[in-house]
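Progress against Task 2.4 (sequence-to-structure conversion) is shown through the following example record, which the project officer requested during the mid-term review.
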Amino acid sequence: MTENSPLNEGFASNCIDLLSEKLGGKALSCSDEFFASCSNLVKPGRGISKPGYFVDTGQWMDGWETRRSFGRNRELDHDWCVLCLGVPGVIRGFDVDTNFFKGNAPEFVSVEAAFVEGELDEKTEWLEILSKTEIQPHSQHLFDCADQRTWTHLRLNIFPDGGIARFRAYGEPSVNQSHFIKGELVDLASALNGGRGLVCSDMFYSSPSNLLMPGRGINMGDGWETRRRRDASNDWAIVKLGLPGTIRKVILDTAHFKGNFPDRFSLEATQTDREDITADDIEWQTVIPQTKLYADQEHLFINEMIASPDAEFTHVRLNIYPDGGVSRLRILGFPSW
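Structure tokens generated for the chain above:
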């Protein structure tokens, strides 16, 4: 594992980063950001280093960094940052990463949470869901969260001051059924609705979780791409639907994949509550048979679907032939509620 490799595969495979910038997560305010902006906390990756690169305030840092506390007159004994989750949800764990903050990391962190339907104000009730905990410089820290409530905002506290590269809140989106109307087509696989990529044959260049993100991909790195196969097989990815239901329309987007898009694809689906989703005895039903794909294009499939419109599914398997990259996958249908 390289120095900049993530350690959060456990959280990432079972949960979604509810603070992800791709989902709309953002930093709203902070006590201080003299050296580096708190908006960096939700950016992708672990943060990078540019040794010897200085800006007006000092060494450029890829994260959120406050001034030294003894240089400020204040009543608080710590710094804080308030963040809004991209989607409300139940948090299962945190990733507090001090990557490249070696001589300027905080000694301790804690996390508070709030549920607000409007805007935050002085009446907002904050509850501690991660108690004050010691952290280390230039390290990735994973913390479990046992609280079962739904939250919309977090407050990250650092003691007494310093820098954090990235902050992740892994969990499960809380979908509000009242936000949908009867007969409305819903993207059952969207990360906003709790969909997630479970497993795939290969993710050498990028993760299948990108397939489920909102909007169109911004570049080839914002999709799922496999290495070039040198055998007669093909690549595949299994997605757990956030909302089980019937499938009525499929959109597959190869945006930005011009010389490395798959030649063909097929889509299968199943209904199961089993965890061993790759087991040989799982029965997969063909939804769309092998179909030609094209470069840098959004493909819409309705009449090509051969599965029963009344069949309910919990998972889909995207097969690509023989290999390549796909930007987005939309599974549009009616939820089973």
